[in-house]
Amino acid sequence: MLIQQIRHLLALLLLVTVPMAYAADPSSEQAQQEMALMAQQQQVLAAQQQAIQTLQQHPQLAEVELWSAIKNGDQGVSAAQTTGAGKLINVVGNEGKIVRSEYMMPAAAFAVVGVFGLFLLFFLVNGPAKLAHGFSGKMVERWSQADIWLHWFMAISCLTLMFTGLNILLGRFVLQPILPASVWAALIYGSKTIHDWISPVFIVSWVICILKWMPLQLFKMYDLKWFVSVGGYINFGPFKGKHPDSGFANAGEKMWFWTLALFGLVVVVSGLLLLLPRLDLPRDVSVFALLAHDAAAVILIAFTIVHVWMATVLSEGGLESMVTGYCDENWAIQHHNLWYDELKSDGRIKYK
Ligand code: HEM
Fold first, then answer.
1. For ligand 1, mutation pick of 305, 307, 335 (most atoms within 8 Å of CB)
2. Which of 98, 121, 304, 328 keeps 20 to 30 A from 286, CA to CA?
3. What is the Å distance from ligand 1's center to 45 Cα?
């Protein structure tokens, strides 16, 4: 009875408002919009009426069918205008949530703890890659001031994205249980805000870095030998004392560069899809972008840990070049012999 009364009331409302909108000015934009809205409301009303009728005729059957259709992600009619508003349950969203918590979260935890632990173990067993002839004290120019600024803008923004991103992904398991609620709330809100606002710094510096440094990072045949002798970083067995040929960048650095180029692209594109609300993406695309963002970030985090280890502790004399722009001559000869020989023979070598 109540449903019928509501239906009569709505029908009456439509009867009264439609002629009024026409009377105002049928060709005006406002009248057109109102007409479109009313047509939509009528459509929703018709769909509701049909659903009510089906439920009244076959109460049990209709409920089962309705619920299983909703669970399978069936699309209905809604007056809301946003993409996917007609779907009550987003099946891909639920599946994406499972992939994220069952695969991405453990992978991210391994990328941090596992890679760091494995490298620490390797370092304890192997020790640092020392300069065979010690430091010469003669400093050779390797990076320009512009390159140094570029590297640190990209590195600091990227590390900030990694720390805040890891907190967004794993913080609720690692930090939330041990922090007071107010501190955790501030931390997670801060992480999200910083993650959003620092990303343009990373994107701009990453684009410039990839374009500017690409010519230095092309693979050559001699890079294969670098891989075979593990770059000359191993201090025992048949690898000990080996110093494979290397140009400006060695094969390991080239691999890092191209990983950063490829997975950086995935992270940047998927991040922009997630960040820009006006895109109003279908929910399936958003879920896919989120998973791609997570997977690419996990790979970048693992490689970054290796890169920082190599630059800071493994390669004696390596960090100096990215701080001052100059490297020790003996470091250049041991780690980048072909580049050093070329500079010498061309007369382009610059000492401090
Ligand atoms: C505390 C963190 C970091 C340190 C200490 C560090 C250190 C260094 C050093 C010393 C070099 C020069 C190696 C050479 O002259 O041959 C270098 C190069 C480079 N860094 Fe970093 N870096 C850090 C973080 C990052 C991050 C987060 C990224 C990526 C977003 C990055 C990307 C690169 C790239 C692409 C190169 C050039 C390729 C190479 O030489 O490996 N760095 N870094």
1. 307
2. 304
3. 62
